[in-house]
Model the fold of this input.
Amino acid sequence: MDLVLHIADELVFDKFWAAAVPLSAFQSSFNATLGTSKWSQIIAHLPHPSIPAEDLAALSNSIPQISAWPRDYVPRQLVSLCVLTLIGIHVLYFLFAWLSYTFIFNHEMMRHPRFLKNQVRLEIETSLRAFPGMMILTLPWFQAEVMGYSKLYDGLDTYGYFYLVASVPLYLLFTDYGIYWIHRWLHIPVFYKMLHKPHHKWLIPTPFASHAFHPVDGYLQSVPYHLFIFVFPLHRVLYLVLFVLINFWTIFIHDSDMVTGHVFEKVINGPAHHTLHHLYFNCNYGQYFTWADRAGNSYRQPESSLDPMLEVKALDDAKKQ
Done:
């Protein structure tokens, strides 16, 4: 997120904060020369870091486009991160969910007897209600990252090219195993009732159900993604790419697809596996792979006989009789 914040500062936020919290509002001699607007009088009461002498000198030279809140000022960073996080999750959610819903999801599944009335709208509403809470809970991770406490790095050869490549499967294995256990613990009855049950309202999910969580549930299952970069080094751009791809994968596995018999079926925890999880609750807790479920005796093999589409076809046949 520090890379995203840096780009946003360059393109938008430097100008925004210079206009919203201008340094001129805190410089009495400058205000006396140009006059004081009501906005300046209001923001003059805001907290701000000590103003460097060179910035005050710049004001006397009629260069007022400086913010009293510099890039490294924590309140500015927190507000900027809130805005970026909310915009980012909405864009990723609606873009990838719409693509999956439009081009991958089998719309015949919406005739399944366990598909709820107005379910897509309900999934979207639940997701939108969850986003602010998830953002607030995630904010400390992003702030720590921006303040330099993570192990993100810039140079491609900082840890060698072998580690650069190896860090991808390391990240996937670490986060997959962490999510497996968090997800499985969320199915312990007391936690399930409090946190995870809202997500299992969608027995036949659409891609829009991917983020339809209780906010704490959604946050807890994201913790391994954030924790990794405070334990292991990871290239900054690579981390951003993986984060986006993981959001796409989370949406993709909620398309209720039960395609079986492919070569990766026993290795990759795909849509068929996750469809079984939504139907039966007690299997296939993993995120990308099946190995953790196999080790934890919670793996269930997708079979064509378990395809929920069979119930849709049975209803059609019954209507024809």
User: Anything to note?
Assistant: The chain is about 60% helix and 0% strand. The longest strand covers residues 152-153.
